[in-house]
Specification:
Radius of gyration: 18 Å
Structural class: alpha+beta
Helix content: 25-40%
Length: about 100
């Protein structure tokens, strides 16, 4: 099924063209003292992303006069392009996290 970009998506795209850019992100903080394995975490996230198709899609332009761009599955989607693991130092505070 063809899924065109929504008006909300278009507003987000327009906001990216002028300062300040609109970006959406998340910071997850895990207590790894219990032995959290980063490889297992990646695998779990990859599995969960399958339940939210939009997270692994990209926009594709259509020919002039054919309407708004459409969402398509990204065949080259790789979770490692969207996930960065940084080990926190014991002296890290909220300001350091915001700087990140």
């Amino acid at each position: 099924m063809l899924q065109r970009v929504s008006t909300d998506d278009l507003m987000s795209l327009a906001a990216r063209r002028h300062p300040p850019p609109l970006q959406v992100g998340a910071v997850l903080i895990f207590d790894v003292r219990g032995g959290l394995d980063i490889g297992s975490l990646r695998a779990i996230l990859q599995q969960r992303i399958a339940a939210v198709p939009r997270l692994r899609q990209r926009l594709e332009k259509v020919p002039l006069g054919c309407g708004r761009p459409v969402w398509v599955d990204d065949p080259g989607f790789n979770i490692d392009d969207h996930l960065t693991v940084i080990e926190e130092q014991p002296e890290t505070d909220d300001a350091d996290l915001l700087d990140l």
